[in-house]
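Handout, section B. The chain below has 105 residues.
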Amino acid sequence: MKYLLMIYSDEKAYGARSPEDQKRGYEAYMAYTEALKKANAFLASDRLQPTTTATTVRVANGKTQVLNGPYIETKEQLGGYYMIEAPDLDAALAWAASRSGASIM
């Protein structure tokens, strides 16, 4: 069964981290990705662009509205995802728990 692990983070806090701390975070994600691959659980992953590049599209009363930026403000932003293959929800939850910042869908 396929599961989507969504990675939420505070993009402002990430930008304020030192280059060394950012590198450690990147290396942790690469190690997590490698563990998923070795377990044959990895299907796909990607990092998303900052919310400042977002465009929101809504359809109301048959009319399309295009808005610059995210439409809502939140403390955390969806920063990326992992699409994994797992035999069941318990296995997917175990993968999500081993990577902080991920929620599961």
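Note. The chain has one domain: 2-104. Compare this with the example in section A.
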